[in-house]
Amino acid sequence: MAARSHTLHDQCKFYRFAKGDVQASHASLGRPDMPDDIEATGNTLWIKFVSDASVNKAGFAASFFKERDECADSNGGCQQQCVNTLGSFKCGCYPGYELSRDGVTCEAACGGYVTTSDGEITSPNWPREYPTNKQCIWQIVAPPQHKITIEFDKFELEGNEVCKYDYVAVRSGFTDDSIFHGKFCGTELPPVITSTNNEMSIKFNSDDTVAKRGFRIRFTSDRDECAVENGGCMHMCVNTVGSYTCNCRNGYVLHSNGHGCKEAGCEHSITSHMGEITSPNWPNKYPSRKDCTWHVSTTAGHMVKLVFNEFELESQPDCAYDHLEIYDGADATAAILGRYCGSKRPTPIVASTNHMFVKFFSDASVQKRGFSASHTTG
């Protein structure tokens, strides 16, 4: 019942509205302002108006109509909860579930704010196919000076070269400018990912077409020993689950104490398909009186390519002082491909065989930053 107009005595002790069945003992709903809409709790509504012998007012006008409880019949067709409203109804879900796009069925809720130190995250409806048109974001937070590591042990999403449709995206942090670890789809297991800080976000998105089984992720948080004074390492500290390790820059080897670094020998034999070659003590100035060599080799039938990222040596027109020499073979008896010095970065160099020999020399005087070069095979 809805009141359309209402003017009664201010004290409101001369009239009453009641709801329920036809018993006069039910609660009074009267008040001096316009009453709210009144809905009976049953199928009857009792109304009583009283006026005394003194003041007269315009009174009231109210509209009434019968409202069917749609939820009374088969729960309104709702899978879990049905909420009756005036003239209609709506479906709801139990805690831990959310309403599907059809407005009737419920599906497991996804995403959320996670503060546990370890656990499991799965795609909606796991291990069955995930729903279409779904977006879930999990925000994992570890204590300060901790990092979060996730490992996928099951992964099956709709595949596309650029992961345009269904995908999982991982960031260290909760904003769009946080460090981005990658976007993954298809059936190949993504790599183990460790956050750069104590926050990680995992975003799952599915489009309106193909649905697959989804994914299962196991996550752990671990104290980052490298966050305090570099873990005591002289050069580089690498955090691992439950511990850490110290590494040294190119040209140095780890001291027996596991933390310090000492200068290594200067003859290198490299067989990896790709990697980096740097001058001794890079990225700091190289020492004087160094004579270093790198023999880079790969599988027969392939060629070695060297691309310089940075280059700064002592300059001299004939490169008679500090210089870098590159040979088209396994040692310095092979044909020379070039001799370089100064600050002009050499162009990419490709050997004609599966061997390349690189030789660096520094004299007793001027020292510069040196060089950094990437080697690949093709």
UniProtKB/TrEMBL annotation:
One protein family per Pfam: CUB
GO terms under biological process: proteolysis
Keyword list, A-Z: Disulfide bond, EGF-like domain, Hydrolase, Protease, Repeat
One GO cellular component, as annotated: extracellular space
Stated name of the protein: Tolloid-like protein 2
Domain (EGF-like) ranges: 222-262
Domain CUB residues, every copy: 110-222, 266-378
Organism: Ciona savignyi (Pacific transparent sea squirt)
Keyword DNA-binding (UniProt): no
Transmembrane domains' residue ranges: none
InterPro entries (alphabetical): CUB_dom, EGF, EGF-like_Ca-bd_dom, EGF-type_Asp/Asn_hydroxyl_site, EGF_Ca-bd_CS, Sperma_CUB_dom_sf
SMART domains documented for this protein: CUB, EGF, EGF_CA
Any GO molecular function: calcium ion binding
Record PANTHER family: COMPLEMENT COMPONENT 1, S SUBCOMPONENT-RELATED (PTHR24255), CUBILIN-LIKE PROTEIN (PTHR24255:SF31)
